[in-house]
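By way of example, what follows is a protein record of this kind.
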Amino acid sequence: MADESTRAASAAVRQELGTLEVADAVFRDLALKAVSDVGGVAGVGRSGGLFRRRSAADAVEVERAEGEVAFAIRLSVRYDVRIPEMVGELRERVKALVEETTGYRVRAVNLTVEHILPPEPQPPRSSASAVPPELPSAPSPPNPQQ
């Protein structure tokens, strides 16, 4: 595998007055921003458990080549999400944000759903919290002065 300096040099985009190089951390940040905007995503990486990642950035891998970038992102999703639709939206958001911000072409956005969060338990309905029905009012006693 090429060292970091060789890889970075080959990933630079040649422009008229020089080159443009965008760091992996910038691509990670943009991908994380796009992920945070998509409903149904509970988190990046596995959220909880024994093998929890140190940071969300650890769950986003970036591969750069000249003028293009590819992502591998590991996700946790909510139980009620329709995964194929959510993944399609996520890919489009990552692609649009990265291409608009950096000028690099997004070659691929590979997603792995590592964890699905169980539905949140609904609190039991308690009869103590229910409002009792109103009692019918008793007829007024007759007024003797009438």
Notes: The first strand starts at residue 13 and ends at 15. The chain has three helices and six strands.
